[in-house]
Amino acid sequence: MKNFPQCIWFTGLSGAGKTTIAQAVRDQLHAQGRLVYVLDGDLLRTGLNRDLGFSDEDRSENTRRVAEVARLMVDAGITVIVALISPLRSGRDRARGLFAPGRFFEVFIDTPLAVCEQRDVKGLYARARQGLIPDFTGIDSPYEPPISPEITLHTSTDDLASCLRTIRLAISAP
Question: Tell me, what CATH number does 87's domain have?
Answer without folding.
Answer: 3.40.50.300
